[in-house]
Amino acid sequence: MEAIKNFINACAVPSRMFPVIVLLFFFVFPVNSFFEKYNKLFFLDRLWTKKGGIFLFSTLTMFLSIGMLDENFRHTVSKPDNLPIVGLIYASLFFLWVALSQARENDLRLEKNEKPKEWHDSQEKILVWPDLVSIELIAMLFALGFLFTWGILVDAPLEEPANLATSPNPAKAPWYFLALQEMLVYFDPALAGVIFPTLIVVGLMAIPYIDNNHKATGYYTFKERKLAITIFLFGWIILWLFMMVIGTILRGPNWNFYGPFEYWDPHKVEALTNINLSEYLYVIGLNMGLPGNIFIREAPGIFLISLYFIGGGFLLTKTVFKNLFKSLGPLRYSFFLVLLLFATSLPIKMTLRWLFNLKYIVSIPEFFFNI
Amino acid sequence: MLDKLKKLLENIRQTQFVRSIFRMGGGFPRDVRQRMFVMLNNFFMHLHPVRIPKHAIKIKYTWCMGGLSFFIFLVLAVTGMLLMFYYRPTVEFAYGDVMDMNEQVPLGIMREIHRWGAHLMIITVWLHMFRVFMTGSYKPPREFNWVIGVILLLLTMLLSFTGYLLPWDQLAIWGISVGSNMAAASPFAGTEGPGASLLKIGSINFVHKGADARFVLIAGRFIGEAALVRFYVLHCVVLPFTIMIFMAVHFWRVRKDGGISKPL
Amino acid sequence: MSKEKVTRRVFVSWIFLGWTLFLACLGGLGTMLLRYLFPNVLFEPSQSFKAGYPENYAVGEVSLLWKSKHGVWIVRTAEGLYALSAVCTHLGCTPNWLSGEKKFKCPCHGSGFRFSGINFEGPAPRPLERFKILLGDDGQILVDKTKKFQQEKGEWNDPASFLAI
Ligand code: HEM
Ligand code: FES
């Protein structure tokens, strides 16, 4: 048992778990025929059948309930303020299954040139009273009952009185902000706290204006909107939910990383000496001091960033997004590309941090400008 | 006996008083015509259309998440107003008031309902957005309603953010600290943000600790009572009011855009 | 009254003037509203304090005496004393002094600072700030938090940032 736990702890380190999850993601949600082949080969498309649903649900439940036997795991997961995240894990998995199982059903119909299930339903009209109103009443009563039960069973937490002299250790925001807090580890506050959140909001708002595939409206499908769904799910599952779970369950004292079954030892030492790109180049690479001139000092970083946005953009346009560029047109496509490059910069920066302890690519603390 | 009771009810229904309240007479709608009438003649019902395509009431299609978000918002509004009776937004009293909240009245679980309700609303709003995306319901003509939806999402999260500061406990004050320091990092508008140091004439900075985005948020250079009052007003007045306006537009647009999306 | 025709030119000018005035009023109103968010008078505690006599501090140690009340660590080196701000330069949490590892470690996102206040790990973009420190007439140390010194601007060389003993 201990060996298994230690193994899971070791696997859970983000630098190991993250690539695995990302890779798995692309096989589970295949964007193109290459991934589709393996998706079929490993029976991953069966996840969205009834049996697959039962498999997903019972695996998760088994992991959680066996995990609960472990004291350290129980301690983090059963904190009152963390309960909702357990609920959210279940709910998002359940609704992911609900959406994709219907998508699978519809995709099979569409393959046979049939209309989607929702189309048949929508041919018939029904009266709102009593059919919809009664459902709403039941839903409301159910929600109210749920809330009351929750409220009676679990007291709302209240921490120690406010004290500006001691930050709690770890000092965590509520779970729904923890993906943002996790981002703060890798990026400067201006980026992680202001620019990225703004871009998330703008990006979400831009979805209907960028996605010009107007075909698949009003029914669940995957095959007809592969790219849109994959990108959205990548953001929702990997960049939001996954990071949130890391922040809630796997971050302990001093914001160090702890495996799910690891004791939160406040004296755990993790050497995390982070180095800027300029220091790598001039101090370690060329064995000289940092240049005095800010622009010379940061030129390599600025060059890399421009290369990422301009060169990377061109490369993507010429290769994988060739057809997309044609179908979206230049304006839509540029918005899409910029937003996408910003979104992928997050996992890239995370990886650089894990591999090279890279702190900032461009670092101009004199002007509070760091990337 | 039963007949007599029925007769009595019928008589009550026919009184001028009852008929003045329920525009259609207060009877239980029995046939199609009457059922359509309830929807049209009742203010609360007329949020809905009269007839809708069948897929729109399938739980499997909408998951009922939008409706539940709205309902939970109403629960939060009611419980929140109850909490306001016992809460004073001052550094001296806030923490104690919150601590006593459950003892103020028998069966005091309003704070629990409010707090867990807030968590639940976040979840339902996220899931609602997820289902709207997965059904492709943001596509024309519903683009703008999606945009309004994103604003609702933002407002929901801001409501929780401002709300969890009010107990003035450790979570609250460090939430404020980190959040307001993020504001200080905004480009140009915050002292610690990129570009702010460029906004100056001679040696006079326009953006400094006493005049930047952080200052607006916490009404001072340090976190204290002024910040608490600011967040209290935002949480109890400004944001609920704003979100109600956007919700109204959201619901109106759902209907004007042709009801729940459906396959063509 | 004459029935002069209003020329197109005059008409356009009036419209232009009207709109300009209207927008100017709106702008004024907006500025007023915005200005209302910035109070003139702040009720904030005094920003300087007396920190006892230099002899009270042991060489090579970080004093936690003034942390909870004033948010300042006073550090004694062989050469003298400096006052470090106990506010993380990342997002303002209060780091903890870990005497075993000889570092200040921030619990919020894991920034670490050395004895000197220089940042070396985690997301903090720059070193901790130092405050003005001097010896008062009564022989006590005086820390003035309104004047701060930032290492990355080369201000730690300023004599006021350091109390030589
Ligand atoms: C306070 C939060 C919100 C409330 C109370 C709310 C309420 C509702 C309700 C009651 C509906 C009717 C259909 C349904 O229940 O699914 C609806 C539809 C819709 N909502 Fe929301 N919503 C909220 C947030 C959002 C968000 C965050 C988005 C997306 C970003 C969004 C986008 C939409 C769209 C596009 C529709 C039309 C869907 C269709 O026609 O199928 N809403 N909303
Ligand atoms: S506030 Fe100290 S690391 Fe973020």
List keywords for this structure.
heterotrimer; B: 264 residues; mainly alpha; Cytochrome Bc1 Complex, Chain C; two-stranded antiparallel ribbon; 11 helices; 3 strands; 3% strand; C: 165 residues; alpha+beta; Rieske Iron-sulfur Protein; four-stranded antiparallel beta sheet; 11 strands; 19% helix; elongated; binds protoporphyrin IX containing FE; binds FE2/S2 (inorganic) cluster
Task: Describe the 3D structure.
The complex is a heterotrimer of chains A (371), B (264) and C (165). In chain A, 66% of the residues lie in helices and 2% in strands. With 371 residues, chain A is mainly α. Chain A folds into two domains: 1-118 and 130-157 and 172-266, no CATH class; 271-371, no CATH class. Chain B is an all-alpha fold. Chain B has a domain at 60-165: Cytochrome Bc1 Complex, Chain C. Chain B contains eleven helices and three strands; from the N terminus they run H-H-H-E-H-H-H-H-H-H-E-E-H-H. In chain B, a hairpin with a 2-residue loop joins strand 2 (200-201) and strand 3 (204-205). The model of chain B has no long low-confidence stretch (mean pLDDT 88). Chain C has a single domain (48-164), classed as Rieske [2Fe-2S] iron-sulphur domain (Rieske Iron-sulfur Protein). In chain C, strands 1, 2, 3, 4, 9, 10 and 11 form a seven-stranded antiparallel β-sheet that branches. In chain C, strands 5-6-7-8 form a four-stranded antiparallel β-sheet, with no helix packed on it. In chain C, a hairpin with a 3-residue loop joins strand 3 and strand 4 (80-85). Chain C is elongated, with a radius of gyration of 27 Å. The mean pLDDT of chain C is 86. Chains in contact: A-B, A-C, B-C. Chains A and B meet through helix 6, helix 7, strand 1, helix 8 and helix 10 of A and helix 3, strand 1, helix 4, helix 5 and helix 6 of B. Strand 1 (125-127) of chain A pairs antiparallel with strand 1 (51-53) of chain B, so a sheet runs across the interface. Protoporphyrin IX containing FE (HEM) binds at residues 62, 65-67, 69-70, 125, 128-129, 132, 137-138, 142, 145-146, 149-150, 152-153, 156, 247, 250, 254, 260-261 of chain B.
